[in-house]
Amino acid sequence: MGAQKKGGAAARVSEDAEVQSRHRLQAILLADSFATKFRPVTLERPKVLLPIVNVPMIDYTLAWLESAGIEEVFVFCCAHSMQVIEYLEKSEWYSHPNLLVRTIESHKSISAGDALRYMYEQQTETSQIQGDFVLVSGDTVSNMPLADLIQEHRERKKKDEKAIMTMVIKQSKSSPLTHQSRLGTDQLFIAVDPLTKQLLHYEEDKIDHPSGSVCLEKSLLDTNPSVLVCNDMQDCYIDICSPEVLSLFEDNFDYQHLRRHFVKGVLVDDIMGYKIFTHEIHSSYAGRIDNFRSYDTVSKDIIQRWTYPYVPDINFSGNRPLKLGRQGIYKASDVVQSRSADVGASTVIGYGTKIGHGDKIVNSVIGNGCSIGSNVVIEGSYIWNNVTIEDGCEIRNAIVCDGVKIRAGAVLQPGVVLSFNVVVGRDFVVPAYSKVSLLQQPTTEDSDEELEYADSSSGTADHLSGLNLQMESKASELGPDGAGYIWEVCEGAHDEEWKHSVAPIPKDKLSEITQAIDDDDTDDESVVPTSGELKSDADSINTDVNDPNDDYYYFEKEVEGTVLRAVEENIKVDLVTMEINGLRLSFNMESADCAGATFFSMIKLALDTPHNSGSELYKNAASIITKWKDLLGFYAKKIDEQIEVIMKFEEMCQESPKELGPLFTQILHLLYDKDVLQEDAILRWEEEKAGADEADKVYLKQCDTFIQWLKEASEEEDEDDEDEEEEDN
């Protein structure tokens, strides 16, 4: 670089911006989660190389970074570092024309904080990080654009040099019972400035406040006239960072965890005055695979194409694309499947796999080179590569790693995880939530902050080489002809087993939680409700939050996201119905619920589309309904389902009386013209409204002329039918 220009601060800022724009876009990818949630699997293979829908996790992250314009990635390797480095060297990433991948290895780093301190030490010697960078972990699946976000961060930094970090967040309602997101992570409470989006408070439910409530310091309102409090956000763990972030880790050796220590440390530090801001994404996808439940959730999202273009039938990262069929079934071209086998919806079958007679496989992922015998049942499970499953086995909501052999008649109960090369004996039943490995369970469990480090240099290879002798001297825990150890659940970790499992949460657990909530249901005036906007000149919270126990609200928001993405990406109707059907099963909804939520999403999209008058709003709605009438019609086939659509529209008009209210009759007529609504449904709705209060008949009266016309037309048809009957007689 040349000598610095003279001319004062303004000239220096201008030069810094110019230099920043010339720097290549960089990212730091942490190839270690520094956690033990995927044990025993991660004792033998690093988490970032575990397959998700038959593609290693790190490939999703690198493919996204490359497509988002990142030009250089530093992959920080700790646990099983040689496996990660060897994989990358053999992959297409080392020779990719648009992305430079560099690996950095450190065996001493046992936390994210250690990793970033090591990066800072390297930085002082090599100046590898040239400016702002993206910080992610190698278990991130996303399709969000980054260029505008990076530019937004840089523009903010120009105006405020203390703005050192921008966190990506996404709306994601937590379960009112488990206080978990759909990714299995703990409920998150954040407070932000609604105007600047500056992060003011960050709190994880389980760690910071197990009661499910949140307490805010009154001092927040002293300097912030308005504070937005949210309990419906998901932290995507995607950060845009300025170089100062690395130096802060160097200056604070107690910073280990990125959120628990660094973010909260910055928020409470009044001396340095550094600031963190948030960026909320809406239509884009971003999810981190933090535990087995999020593994299951993200896998389903990939299969249902939320992550497009990172889906099984698209070539990315050198993967072999599969063929997409009806009902979301993906198959490799060389799959050998018996005619009597039943492969159901949302299923992926990899290359070289053989499926036997009478098999039933649904909502599952089968890897490459698997051999499945006859009369096998596989539901909601993940079978990795080169697995052998003999006749008559039953596998439900389980994860089966590479090389496993399941002998005839064996049963895997929900939540089971079989690590590499385990053998399940004939007719053996593996208990629910069991974790099984050829490696014996460590005598002491590491905390979730300690390193998953067990490469060949630490003795794992020696342990495996002597395994056969050990198994001969000890009866197998998986039957006489089995091989493997069933790990015991650590004390105090029983709740984690079912909360973080690929299996659905058991009904008895949900009942226990519901009862506990009922028993502890008290009003505490010292605790601030968990959603809404606090204003310094008011004692109340301005919020329009739906009942947190209303599953339909969450379902409706998910359907809205699905419809929005379908419109933006012009996805085929049958694929959209597949996604909505998946949501319907997840939320235990009826077809009428799907009809109402789908119609709501269409009208909401029309409202969100720019318009300057009622006629333009009608054109927006007409365009969407005309194009997607088949989607709505799929769920509104019966009269009751069509009435649900009318009632949903009536409800929306009541909420937006000025915009939607005047269009009620026009849009109702349009739905009739497009054969979405039958006249019987409209007339039934009119009958049901007959006994309602006058205030509830506003929209019924508005369409009185249209309804009278329908009645007259119906009477004329009846008269014509009677005349035809008389003529026949």
From TrEMBL:
UniProt superkingdom: Eukaryota
GO MF annotations, alphabetized: guanyl-nucleotide exchange factor activity; translation initiation factor activity; translation initiation factor binding
Chief location of this protein within or outside the cell: cytoplasm
PROSITE patterns noted in UniProt: W2
Any one cellular-component term (Gene Ontology): eukaryotic translation initiation factor 2B complex
Protein name: Translation initiation factor eIF2B subunit epsilon
InterPro entries in alphabetical order: eIF-2B_epsilon_N, eIF2B_epsilon, LbH_EIF2B3/5, NTP_transferase_dom, W2_domain, W2_eIF2B_epsilon
Entries under CDD domains matching the protein: eIF-2B_epsilon_N (cd04197), LbH_eIF2B_epsilon (cd05787), W2_eIF2B_epsilon (cd11558)
Quaternary context: Component of the translation initiation factor 2B (eIF2B) complex which is a heterodecamer of two sets of five different subunits: alpha, beta, gamma, delta and epsilon. Subunits alpha, beta and delta comprise a regulatory subcomplex and subunits epsilon and gamma comprise a catalytic subcomplex. Within the complex, the hexameric regulatory complex resides at the center, with the two heterodimeric catalytic subcomplexes bound on opposite sides.
Region described as Disordered: 441-464, 518-542
PANTHER family documented for this protein: TRANSLATION INITIATION FACTOR EIF-2B SUBUNIT EPSILON
Localization, UniProt: Cytoplasm, Cytosol
Keywords for this protein: Cytoplasm
Family affiliation: Belongs to the eIF-2B gamma/epsilon subunits family.
Domain W2: 549-720
Signal sequence range: none
